[in-house]
Design brief:
Blueprint lengths: L8 H12 L9 E4 L4 H20 L4 E2 L10 E8 L7 E7 L12 H10 L2 E7 H6 L10 H7 L2 H8 L11 E8 L2 H5 L3 H11 L1 H8 L4 E5 L8 E7 L2 E4 L6 E5 L5 E3 L4 E2 L6 E4 L14 E6 L9 H25 L10 E4 L18 E5 L5 H13 L11 E4 L5
């Protein structure tokens, strides 16, 4: 994964897991968390619980969402199967600390090696910074800040290493705007999609030149119940009771604290710039993104679309591999061919998803019943659950899509 810290990867994964386990989808897909690292499972459950608690306690308030960040790679493994059939497909989603990818060229060679190995890439885009960088009235989120926070130049450079090997090795690339609830709820989600196309036009044009690279813009609401409100200066408050409490100026006399409370400082208080607001690799300071809690219901939206596209790609590419192997009269079972998916994410808060960012690391495709999987995907399409041209979703290049 590449990009700034707090990329929103874990919250997207939480939304994805929640939706796939919903009553509406249980008859199509069965998803089991088989993560061997119990700490990782705990962190995912704690995140889901923390989000729900915030929604219930802070409805109507303007708050900062989440400050936790990972200090290392965390793997989550899900087992996906079709009810009533044998076999399963295991996907490992890897969540990483963003600092590793946000320091110029230090780790570029490592990332390039990963790009050579993987088939699917997710570029998670922080929507408030993407949209506000063009707002001339927002003096805190300048174009330079928005571009740096989303690591746009770094992404462009790294995506140039992706190709389809003359059509022989298909790829799937998602551009995933997250934290887009405000625009979605106000009928402006297509503006977000258009902005992604504009800002990332150079790498998009290069990727779409390949016949077998599927390129999709897929806006995701990982919570669904919070809307971007405004950018404010990033400060921290310290006194006898608290240390480094995130906050921002509210007016000439008061601060707004991360929990949404308004506070009038006293003489003993120490108010400083938030050192964590420095954008890694740049001499720039990002503002705090404040969000209004508009509902107490946890309602992730379109996280499931990410899964549908991944499963369709996995199925189609697997069938291609099967035909290739049969043509060469190989004895090795076709489903033992590793199908690697890398999901790269850039710069946003953990709650936002930050499709969400995670990756499917060279795990075996598994022994899932391919015919049943095809039937399931077809049923999902026929039911109208899979979207290709609504909610801001736009397929820019079909690749292996039927």
């Amino acid at each position: 994964m590449m990009g700034a810290r707090r990329a929103g990867k874990t919250s997207t994964l939480s939304g994805l897991y929640s939706i796939l386990n919903s009553d509406a989808l249980k008859s199509y897909l069965s998803v089991k968390d088989i993560t061997p690292d119990r700490a990782a499972i705990t962190s995912l459950l704690e995140l889901r619980s923390s989000i729900q608690e915030t929604l219930e306690k802070k409805e109507g308030k303007i708050v900062l969402m989440g400050s936790k960040r990972n200090e290392a790679f965390i793997d989550y493994t899900f087992e996906i199967s079709v009810p009533g059939s044998e076999g399963s497909l295991r996907i490992t989603f890897t969540d990483a600390n963003g600092e590793y990818y946000a320091n110029g060229d230090i780790h570029n060679e490592d990332i390039k090696r990963k790009i050579d190995q993987y088939d699917i890439f997710v570029i998670a885009v922080d929507t408030p910074y993407l949209m506000e960088m063009y707002n001339r009235n927002n003096t805190l989120c300048t174009f330079a800040v928005g571009e740096a926070y989303n690591q746009i130049d770094t992404i462009h450079t790294l995506l140039t290493d992706i190709d389809d090997n003359d059509g022989k090795n298909a790829k799937l690339v998602f551009f995933v705007p997250i934290k887009c609830e405000y625009w979605a709820n106000h009928g402006r989600i297509n503006e977000v999609t258009a902005r992604v196309e504009k800002v990332y036009k150079t790498p998009i044009k290069a990727l779409c030149a390949y016949e077998n690279i599927e390129v999709v813009i897929l806006p995701v609401q990982t919570i669904g119940s919070v809307e971007f409100d405004t950018h404010r200066e990033a400060k921290v408050l310290s006194n006898e009771k608290v240390q480094g409490l995130r906050c921002s100026p509210w007016d000439s006399q008061r601060l707004i604290l991360e929990n949404g409370d308004l506070y009038t400082p006293i003489v003993e208080d120490i108010i400083q710039n938030d050192v964590d607001a420095k954008i890694e690799g740049f001499p720039l300071i990002r503002p705090n993104s404040w969000f209004k809690v508009v509902s107490n219901q946890y309602a992730p939206h379109n996280c499931d679309q990410l899964a549908y596209y991944i499963l369709q790609f996995a199925l189609t590419k697997s069938l291609v591999l099967k035909r290739q192997l049969q043509g060469k009269e190989r004895k090795k079972s076709w489903w033992h061919i590793p199908l690697a998916i890398a999901l790269f994410a850039t710069g946003m808060g953990w709650f936002a998803a930050g499709v969400l960012a995670y990756h499917f690391i060279s795990k075996r495709l598994g022994n899932i019943d391919v015919d049943k999987l095809q039937e399931t995907i077809t049923a999902i399409k026929d039911k109208g659950l899979w979207k290709t041209s609504e909610d801001g979703i736009k397929v820019l290049n079909k690749g292996l899509l039927p």
